[in-house]
Amino acid sequence: EGQVCYSSRCPRHYPEQLGDNSGEEGLVDNGGSGRSLDEQELSRFWTQYISRDVVENVSGRERKRQQVIRDIILTECDLMQDLQYLRTHWVEPLQTGDIIPPERREDFVHQVFRNIKEISDVNSRLCELLTERQNSCSIVETIGDIFTEMAPHFHPFVQYVKHQQSDKYEIKKERSNNQSFAMFAERVERLPESRMMELSAYLNRPTERLARYPLLLEDVLNHTHEDNTDQVAIPRVLSMLRELLDKVSRASEEAENRSALLQLDRELVPRRGKELDLQLKDEQRQLVYKGLLRRRGARRGFNGNLQVFLFDHALLMVKPKVINRDEKLKVFR
């Protein structure tokens, strides 16, 4: 936060400054100021963003509403910067460098970053529309129409969530097995641009943002006058967003289930002389229940507990065992 955005579509591209002779809108183009972008700062407070005359002529309720709208716009552009960071510091180097072996490179980049570009396109368009609205007037009358236009385009979030768990596993596995990637990741995560955040934190940003939209829009609605068209538009958008979040929640549960099954499949050790194929990689496979089962008659001091997994098609009992310093699950029955 507080950094200047270098995108021309972002309101933090340059700070709209106040002057003694600011016009009706209270915004002054600083194109001839001669100040470098590094010297410029844009206040996150709406009351300092526009002229004092405008501030003094609006109610406290409207000031709060404008501040929430300001926060929505700036945080949307924060997300745009984060997605740009992913593209320039992760996706592009991984695609063009020798960090990942050539035969796995394309699959790895696709698996980890999925449809992040689609989400970035939606985010950029939303940021652009919100920025244009704020730059067109000192007091933003409505934003519900913008979200009404954009909400139907949020469907890439659902597809993105479906694979988040497996993506995190791929990153962890690559760090462990590929020294070049581990060194690359450590170097990038130490850059000032990373803000001391790991790759996984940036990959979580799209879904975190989606979950924030209803809270932010409800806050706008709570400070909106009854005769404003947002009183009709925002509830409609909230309904669309909640329906989408339900889909995201279900997709997340499916992703966690699939990730657990894949992890289990990697850890299973079949009984000697027995083949084992539980088809745990099948996308339709469901883990119904898991728990502990104590074996009757187990000797004192002997850990007779078994782990039990109930699937939609089979019952599996296993016993934890360390093999070559790796924890495995030996099939009992």
TrEMBL record:
Q: Which Pfam families match?
A: PH_5, RhoGEF
Q: Name one GO molecular function term.
A: guanyl-nucleotide exchange factor activity
Does DNA repair count among this protein's keywords? no
Q: Which UniProt keywords apply?
A: Phosphoprotein
Checking InterPro entries in the record gives: DBL_dom_sf, DH_dom, PH-like_dom_sf, PH_5, Rho-type_GEFs
Tree of life domain:
Eukaryota
Q: Where is this region: Disordered?
A: 15-35
Q: Per the database record, which ranges form the DH domain? A: 64-251
Please indicate if the UniProt record lists Chaperone as a keyword.
no
| Record-linked PANTHER family | RHO1 GDP-GTP EXCHANGE PROTEIN 1-RELATED
List the protein's name.
DH domain-containing protein
Species this chain originates from: Rhizoctonia solani
